[in-house]
Amino acid sequence: MDHHTHSTAAPRELQMARSMCWHCQSEVAGEYFCDRCVKVQPVSKEVDYFTCMSLPRRLTIDQRQLETKFYELSRAFHPDFYQNKSTAEQTISLGNSALLNTAYRTLRDPIERAEYLIGLEAGSVKEIRNSPPADLFEEILELQDTLNEYRATDCTSETKSTVLAKLQAERELLEQRQRDMEAALQQLFIQWDRLQDRAEATDQARAERSRILKQMRENLSNRTYVKNIVSDLASTIG
Amino acid sequence: MVRIVGIDLGTTNSLVAYMADGHPHIVPGRNERTMVPSVVAMTDNGLIVGDPAREHLTRSPERTVYSVKRFMGKGLEDVQSELAYFPYQLTEQGGVIRIKLGEKTYSPPQISAMILKELKQRAEAHLGESITRAVITVPAYFNDSQRQATKDAGMIAGLDVLRIINEPTAASLAYGLQRKTQGTITVYDLGGGTFDISILKLKNGIFEVLATNGDTHLGGDDFDRQIADLFVREILEQQGLDLTAYPDHMQAVRLEAERTKIRLSDELKITATLDLPEGKGRYSRELTRDQLESLTRKLIERTLEPCRLALKDAALTSNDIDEVVLVGGSTRMPLVRQLVQALFGKEPHCELNPDEVVALGAAVQADILSGGTTDLLLLDVTPLSLGIETMGGVMSSLIRRNTTIPASAKEMFTTYVDGQTGVDIHILQGERELVKDNRSLARFRLKVPPLPAGVPRIEVTFLIDANGILNVSARDVRTGDTQSLAVKPSYGLKDDEVERMIGESYKFAADDLKARQLIEARTEADAILMATEKALKQGAHLVGEEDLSSIRTTITAVEAAKSGEDHKAIRAKMADLEKATHHLAEVLMDNSLKEALENKKLSEFSDV
Ligand SMILES: Nc1ncnc2c1ncn2[C@@H]1O[C@H](COP(=O)(O)OP(=O)(O)OP(=O)(O)O)[C@@H](O)[C@H]1O
Ligand SMILES: [Mg+2]
User: Fold this and answer.
1) Number of Cβ atoms within 10 Å of the Cβ of B456
2) Across the interface, which of B204, B377, B414 has its CB nearest the CB of A80?
3) Residue B325: enclosing H or E segment and its boundaries?
4) Per mean pLDDT, which of A4-13, A173-182, B42-51, B357-366 is the most reliable?
5) Quick count: other Cβ atoms within 10 Å of Cβ B540?
6) Could you tell me the residue ranges of all domains in chain B?
7) What is the CATH number of domain B497-602?
8) The domain made up of B384-493 is a member of CATH 3.40.50.2000
9) Pick from A1, A13, A105: which is nearest to B403 by CB?
10) Is residue B328 lining ligand 1, measured as CB closer than 6 Å?
């Protein structure tokens, strides 16, 4: 492989707005099926996952409602039900199902949901940070040293168990840290949703929104950083 | 709508099922046995499949293929460590294993196609209609190459493979349909060659797989090897006889090992016996269930880690599992049940026949596809992460394992050098960080218009369809043009090769029926001839010269007909032979009855 760039940002390119049925050319009034010829219609690339799942664009969602909608749309789109249909319909069914599955997977998980929503509001958040968050800097550096020491000492030596104990304590600390970050995020989610519910168009509300967005973004990438460290640690010490 | 059948193409046994009156049914064989042993033998009279082929395992081991599923989608280096266990000769060509039978070599999909054809003919005979469409099951943990190989096998057999579905999920369909279960269930499937674990949520007719894991190289075959190795070792120690030099005896050892293992599921000790070559008499040895369990415990314990991983991926603990369902012949082993019960903390269900439930589920899925069943829907996942090679030999993951399928991911590619006209893409499957530790699936070269570096933008879509099989397409974002890709599989047959094999198979199919009837007549004639020889040895002195000469002339006539091409002529001569030997058979019967009676008297006498 030569070169490639990641394209994690939500596809921004504009597709021709879908206004006509691909099959009978009538105006499509139905959501996913043409009102006239009842053929399945491709879900537009512009539809965001919240709209696709008939959910308000919020960070706290009704999981049951999400699941019910997912099952309902699966029954509408799944390739199993297009076996006797035309190739065009089969292709649409496949594309719609894949999109539906991605939408469900993204919204089901609170972190992915937040990352996705922030991406919708303000562009991608998936830039992975490679330096520790400021308040963790010292701690992480020390941890790296301890880890190196652990890897270098041979299994039988006595220092090994001391180092291991230290690492385990560190791991618990970091796990607690991750939980704290998630709790803080949860608070931010609630604040954000309230703000959206009020739907104020004042300058103050706008400023508040961008403050919360920025903070969520910061917290999310810190959390990802800590989570990766924890799982590295877990795979080293078992 | 043309009927679609469901096929369980197993390592050890294969079955075909169909749907009628809202219920799945297995197609029975001629002797009411539902399973077709997955064995293919090349005999002097042609290829044979199933039960009759099984008999050739010890007769002509180098030309009798079993467990071919272990080779599907594999290269020779993948099976290097177990080559010694297989009496037939394996080679490789174009990244695909080839099996040498007589003068020709066959790819694993071709051998599997022979088994599929046998099932197809069974179904046709039973249902009285032509069968051309099928759903075929594969282990859930099969990778893309193994799935593709299975699809190829179907095509070579003249079947339109409408869907590849996972064995444990198929089982859950049959199970859920019958028991109307709701909740979270785990299917633990341990067969002849593979192990799968799947965790599903069943709700209002939706069967949603939450996670799957497994080992495509762990099953009853491996338990048999542990026992066989023990026998071979002991024979070497006690008799100084190295059985590995005798392929026919090695097969007998393998079969006796399996028989012993199976009996030990019901009994606590069994005596295994083997005839030895070189006039070394017999080897006989008692094996207890405890001994079997210490031989196999490590292997069985290897199934537990995939179970834990699947639970973890589903974000569940064993307490969240409402029911555990056992599938596959090897789950009849008490130790398997015990360990599964300990892990999940509840008694597993096994009221459905573990041999048949996968094929039954495949028939249910077939009925969903044909529009018969409309209230059930299976949402399966891809078992392995899919990614591409990036700089430094690292895999960058695009679709994570346990993602619901169909699943797609898009990736944008550009160039680093002015005027660069191509980008090479290497597709991988697996969970490890480095490319070399994962499975190479395929490579292709993306065509790029010669432009300054960084300007071209080619969007590649990786789509895993409902079969769990990858489709790749590419689009130039600047022009909107799509480009067709020549994807070169790392471990699969090339398209033109499959075409050729389908062609060959059709050519055969034309004379297939005639050839089959001829092969069957010849095989049966062989059996009669052998039986007659044996009868003559035992009882020639009991009948008159007239009888004997008439038997001898009909034997010659049967042999002559056998070398001809007309199966009816062979059958006619066989009937003559049966008439000619009628008297001899009667006399022998009387004689053996008499002997039996005399023996009985003797034994009664000695009992007194
Ligand atoms: N009573 C029994 N006790 C132990 N093992 C058994 C018993 N009955 C069958 N087996 C074993 O089960 C295996 C066959 O099981 P099954 O027919 O489910 O496998 P398969 O579907 O052909 O294989 P796979 O699913 O791995 O491709 C063989 O190894 C056989 O020895
Ligand atoms: Mg099986």
Assistant:
1) 23
2) B377
3) strand B323-327
4) B357-366
5) 13
6) 4-218+302-379, 220-299, 384-493, 497-602
7) 1.20.1270.10
8) no
9) A105
10) yes
